[in-house]
Design goal:
Helix content of chain A is 67%, strand content 5%. With 424 residues, chain A is mainly α. Chain A has 2 domains: 130 residues, no CATH class; 218 residues, MetI-like fold, CATH 1.10.3720. A two-stranded antiparallel sheet of chain B has the order 1-2. The chains are: A mainly alpha (424), B mainly alpha (435).
Chain lengths: 424, 435
């Protein structure tokens, strides 16, 4: 066989190998994309229903004898009155045929206990309601909510279900009368954490995240930019500066949980800063984000053509003036891009916050940097641990909110990088 | 001529006027600010010491002094704790409040007078001949240097804080027991007087669990990441590349807590169900589920590093191979990959260090109890999971249970540090080869 024939006979095999290799690459891409799809798909399908919530319309009679026996509209009395009784009474009237103790308790438990506070707030705001009857949409209990959303299977034997046949019958009656329906879930955006899924919201966690990120931004942005300026412009080339650079590169790869240990040992135990607060969380995240910002800022200073600086120096500016007046403004969009990406990372970070105790059960949204707070990812972590189906749904919804923030931040970063950054 | 005329004029300024302003502000303001911050840093401790001295039987309560301080602090900050606090604590809290009010007044007065004195001095010494710009720039430069040195301080802070607590741990538990012991059950050591209170702090099961999960993660991430990088850089049309690359990078931007939820809610149960259908017993918190999801998280990391490394291989090598009649895949496997191998290995090492340090996925999807096994279908625990479980909740800083977390943190820090060092060294060596 001649040389040519040898080569030709091998060609088919080699081309098959080529095709196979190409196919592997394609499979890898498809796998990666399908993981992405699976991840987002499962979270969206789990979570989108949490943006609605089941409400029941009840004719509530604001019975003066129950909530305002004295009749003087005293806010103190009105505040501590038994509004739950109003809800119960309305519910019993809706189903006059139900009489047994147990059955009546089941009836009352179809309504969220939070609705009593809702009524209280309405009365406090408008005492004129007392003595009148109003049709009010009150929040249903999370089990009813789950039934309305189709998560409770009616085919399952009664004793393995969270709701028995009687209660399901009540719900069907309400549905026929058109007084039970799913409406937009405002509680989710206006409430803090709660033990009851139907009363739980993300406002507290969002506020905590926001306060934490403010601290992080205020610390890490100026310090990061200053460090980048020094290293790019003023640092002499010596061992010490090498050490700084090695340190920055290594810090960028240190696991985030280690920063949590640092925060716990130094800020909380040594400096005696308050645990579980936004200020400590912000400090820890600032230390964690700093390397990212320094590295991004250095890259963006390097991207400014030296001719700009040289022109400034040529007309007599000092190096500091050339830097701050000419180079820095051009490099700024790039630095901001890096900062936004760093902030987005900090927003999604959970582990270091667990270390410094931002995992407490906190109902009231924090009102300052030194209030006990939690953060959105930590709230997701806390809820994901809860066994109730209602919390699984809310966890996914909170994740969707978190992802929406991250996408917005990254979009802003991309916009800055593509549109505002000057290219030379 | 003109110049001489101006020089003759004694009011010629050395620098632009604004620099004199800045210098004046620094001279006048900096000392006062320094006083303010130093006082703020120590205020709590000084006042508390005063209050404790005032308490009649403070000495006898020395053992519980920390508790007492905690009570007083609570009473100061929280009206409800104030109401339920004991008589002494209330007295102390009142005294603290009084003192702190006086202190605030005194601080204001001190700062203002320091400011006034410094301003007067600044006025006195500020002359047109002073080299204001040079001085201001020197100060700014010092500030910039300080900022860049922060990276060193952070590293020192990490090492010291972890090392200090870990050394306290190693006074109780020997290093060899920690590093080579096969039994990990820290939960036993709650109280000193309990039977068997020593607990067991052999970290081998944790290291094995961490390695197992990281290994599974790399089994997913390395082939998928590498092959997709190859496909994107060599085969994909530029449009596909432009669409797929950012999509893959989304995976890197998803918070780890989301992956953890995904692993615990979707992948774990799915694997368990699949196992049941083929007759395998899969734990609901199996290493496989956690490792698999961690692998998904690392895919973009591997693929972007591999992409960088592959595109860094000189085009001439590619062209040479193709010109000899090799197919694309032959070029890739026989020429480019061998040339890029050090870089790819460095990237994989970085990815492994990521996997080892990853916390939320394993906290949410891996087990809690230490289990020395290499079976991916069973539940294992990892170093990071144990750090979290040991430190979340109530902490006593003298129990080996809490301190053990810092020892684990120390191990974690040095392992990831070593991996990063090796990886960065390998990558840099590789780059130098082609530059």
């Amino acid at each position: 066989m001649s040389r040519t024939e040898q080569i030709v006979s091998g060609l088919a095999r080699r081309q098959r190998a080529e095709k196979r290799f190409r196919l592997y690459g394609l499979i890898a891409i498809v796998l990666g994309m399908s993981f992405l799809l699976l991840l987002f798909g499962s979270i969206v399908t789990n979570g989108y229903k949490a943006f609605t919530q089941t409400y029941i319309e009840l004719p509530i009679y604001f019975n003066p004898e129950v909530i305002d026996p004295g009749g003087e509209h005293d806010p103190q009395t009105l505040f501590s009155a038994d509004y739950w009784k109003l809800v119960k009474t309305a519910m019993y009237q809706k189903f006059p045929q139900v009489s047994g103790r147990k059955e009546r308790r089941e009836l009352a438990r179809m309504i969220s206990e939070g609705s009593a506070y809702e009524l209280r707030d309405q009365v406090l705001e408008n005492p004129g309601l007392i003595g009148t009857t109003r049709h009010i949409w009150v929040v249903a209990d999370d089990d009813i909510d789950m039934l309305m959303k189709g998560y409770i299977d009616r085919e399952v034997p009664e004793d393995e279900r969270r709701l028995n046949d009687r209660v399901i019958g009540y719900v069907d009656d309400l549905r026929e009368a058109g007084v039970i329906e799913r409406q937009f879930n405002t509680t989710f955006f206006t409430a803090g954490d709660s033990r009851e899924p139907e009363q739980a919201g993300i406002l507290g966690a969002l506020t905590g995240s926001f306060l934490t990120l403010i601290i992080t931004l205020l610390l890490s942005f100026p310090i990061g930019v200053a460090a980048a300026i020094y290293l790019e412009e003023f640092a002499p080339r010596n061992r010490f500066i090498d050490l700084i650079e090695i340190n920055i590169n290594n810090l960028a790869a240190v696991p985030s949980i280690i920063f949590g240990l640092l925060g716990l040992a130094i800020f909380i135990n040594w400096f005696g800063m308050p645990r579980s607060t936004a200020i400590v969380g912000g400090l820890v995240l600032a230390l964690m984000t700093l390397p990212t910002i320094i590295i991004a800022s250095r890259v963006s200073i390097q991207a400014v053509p030296p001719s700009i600086k040289e022109a400034a120096l040529g007309v007599g500016a000092s190096r500091m003036q050339a830097m701050f007046h000419h180079v820095l403004p051009i490099a700024m969009p790039g630095m901001l891009t890096g900062t936004i990406i760093g902030m987005a990372r900090a927003l999604g970070e959970t582990a270091p916050l667990l270390m410094i105790g931002m995992v407490a059960f906190i109902v009231e949204p924090p009102s300052g940097f030194t209030d006990p707070a939690t953060a959105l990812p930590v709230q997701i972590f806390l809820w994901s641990d809860s066994p109730e189906r209602g919390f699984t749904e809310r966890t996914s919804a909170a994740i969707l909110v978190l992802l929406a923030f991250l996408i917005a931040m990254n979009a802003a970063a991309v916009y800055l990088r593509e549109k505002v950054t000057k290219r030379f | 001529m003109l110049r001489q005329a101006r020089d003759a004029n004694a009011t010629r300024l050395n620098s632009l006027p604004e620099y004199f302003g800045m210098l004046g502000a620094i001279w006048a303001g900096a000392p006062a600010l320094l006083v303010y911050f130093v006082w703020l840093a120590f205020e709590g401790d000084i006042l508390m010491a005063q209050v404790l001295e005032m308490l009649p039987d403070a000495d006898s309560m020395a053992a519980t002094q920390e508790l007492l301080i905690g009570d007083i602090r609570n009473a100061i900050e929280n009206p409800i704790s104030y109401r339920i606090a004991s008589e002494e604590v209330r007295m102390a809290a009142d005294r603290y409040r009084e003192l702190s009010q006086t202190a605030t007044l005194a601080l204001t007065a001190t700062c203002l007078s320091v400011f006034a004195v410094c301003s007067a001095l600044a006025l006195k010494f500020m002359t047109p001949r002073i080299r204001a710009r040079a001085q201001v720039e020197k100060i700014i430069r010092g500030f910039l240097l300080l900022c860049s040195m922060l990276a060193i301080f952070i590293t020192i802070g990490i090492v010291l804080s972890v090392l200090f607590e870990a050394s306290r741990f190693f006074q109780i538990v020997s290093v060899t027991e920690f590093l080579f012991g096969l039994d990990w059950s820290p939960q036993m050591a709650i109280r000193e007087d309990q039977v068997g209170s020593s607990g067991a702090f052999g970290a081998v099961p944790l290291f094995v669990g961490t390695l197992l999960i990281s290994f599974i993660a790399m089994l997913v991430a390395a082939p998928v990441g590498l092959m997709s990088a190859i496909y994107l850089s060599e085969y994909a049309p530029s449009k596909v590349r432009a669409a797929v690359k950012p999509l893959l990078e989304i995976l890197a931007g998803v918070p780890t807590v989301v992956y953890g939820f995904f692993a615990a809610i979707v992948v774990g149960p799915a694997l368990r169900g699949f196992g049941q259908s083929v007759g395998l017993d899969v734990a609901s918190e199996s290493a496989l589920a956690a490792g698999f999801v961690m692998g998904i998280m690392i895919i973009p990391f591997v693929s972007s590093i591999s992409d960088d490394v592959i595109t860094a291989v000189p085009q001439a090598m590619r062209d040479g191979s193709l010109a000899m009649g090799a197919t694309h895949s032959e070029t890739m496997r026989r020429v480019i990959l061998p040339a890029a191998l050090p870089g790819i290995i460095g990237g994989l090492l970085l990815a492994i260090s990521r996997a080892i340090g990853e916390t939320m996925i394993v906290v949410m999807a891996a087990g809690l109890s230490a289990n020395l096994t290499a079976n991916p279908l069973e539940a294992v625990t990892t170093v990071t999971v144990q750090i979290v479980t040991l430190l979340v909740g109530d902490q006593e800083f003298d129990s080996p249970k809490t301190l053990a977390a810092f020892a684990l943190g120390l191990a974690l820090f040095f392992i990831t540090l070593a991996l990063n060092f090796i990886a960065l060294y390998v990558v840099r060596k590789y780059r130098e080869q082609y530059e």
